[in-house]
Specification:
- The chain has about 110 residues and is mainly α.
- Helix content is about 70%, strand content about 0%.
- The protein has five helices and no strands.
- It has helices spanning about 5-25, 35-45, 45-65, 80-85, 90-105.
């Protein structure tokens, strides 16, 4: 598996897991059980939390994949810090594009 594919998998897994966690808490149902409109509505209520949760979840995994280690995950992870752990612009762009694809899918009421 290439690093690009690994990053895509990390990002896709985050969105599936996060969406499942939110929808179970909000509706008692998994994303697959919800109509697109209800899935979109449930996720919109957590719109402002997605980026921070994403950074906390994927930062250490991407860092590890690139041979970097941190004694603790920083509380406030910035886009520049994400760029640093991605190591290359190509890997950073892969992460960003996969994030966008997942986020847009949620806005359409679906998961990837």
């Amino acid at each position: 598996m290439t690093k690009e594919q690994y990053i895509r998998d990390i990002v896709n897994t985050f969105f599936r897991d996060y969406t499942k966690q939110v929808t179970l808490a909000e509706t008692g149902m998994t994303p697959e059980q919800l109509e697109p409109r209800l899935l979109k509505q449930a996720m919109l209520e957590h719109y402002e939390e997605v980026a921070a949760a994403f950074h906390r979840a994927v930062f250490p995994k991407i860092a590890e994949a690139n041979g970097l280690s941190f004694s603790a995950v920083p509380d406030d992870i910035t886009p520049e810090m994400m760029r640093t752990v991605c190591v290359t612009e190509s890997l950073f762009n892969t992460m960003v594009e996969t994030y966008r694809q997942n986020f847009f899918a949620l806005l359409q009421g679906r998961i990837i």
